[in-house]
Amino acid sequence: QEGSDDENMVDNFVTFFVAGHETTANLLSFTIMELARHPEIVTKLQAEVDEVIGVKRDVAYEDLRKLKYLSQVLKEILRLYPPVAGVMRWTEKKNVIEGIDIPANTTLFFSTYLMGRMERYFKNALTFDPDRFSKDKSRPYFSYFPFSLGPRSCIGQLFAQVSKIIALRMSTPILVFVPFKREVENLRMLLIHSFSL
């Protein structure tokens, strides 16, 4: 019994830290891409960070909870670019969902990627719009589940959310986003020149 507890602890550690860091890195990459495309969102984000955090060197957990717009940006990134494409579930008994018979012992796949891009659930689904996650907007149930749902949801959900907010918050003062389309060629030439030195 004791050995299995140690094994379970190691499995949770690997899941929590290794998987959490990879998915967080992917999410931050997509966040930087979208922010580079939307300088008006960066301006709004920077204003919130300046107001809530200012020049504080240490960020308290209470401060993170006040970064509402940053949270909306991250939720919208998770909707469009979920780090995990979907989740699988197994039915123990027969079910009928919206008139569709699902036999017992069936494996079901729920795609977070597809659900987040469906017009049925999200108006202008392919548009990056953090305001769709503002407090006053309603969302249909069970259409947004980047960390899965229920008792088998992601063990590292809170860690992932906090680490993303901290990483973005720490980056915001030093990131300068250039307009995406206009500067790509100059950036490519700069990189070619840098590597040729």
TrEMBL record:
Coiled coil: none annotated. Heme binds at C154. Transmembrane segments: none annotated. GO terms for biological process: cholesterol catabolic process. It comes from the Eukaryota. PROSITE patterns: CYTOCHROME_P450. SUPFAM superfamilies: Cytochrome P450 (SSF48264). Gene3D superfamilies: Cytochrome P450 (1.10.630.10). One of its GO terms (molecular function) is iron ion binding. Keywords: Heme, Iron, Metal-binding, Monooxygenase, Oxidoreductase. InterPro entries: CYP46A1 (IPR039983), Cyt_P450 (IPR001128), Cyt_P450_CS (IPR017972), Cyt_P450_E_grp-I (IPR002401), Cyt_P450_sf (IPR036396). Its cofactor is heme. It holds the Pfam family p450. Belongs to the cytochrome P450 family. This is Cholesterol 24-hydroxylase-like. It comes from Notechis scutatus (mainland tiger snake). The gene is LOC113429042.
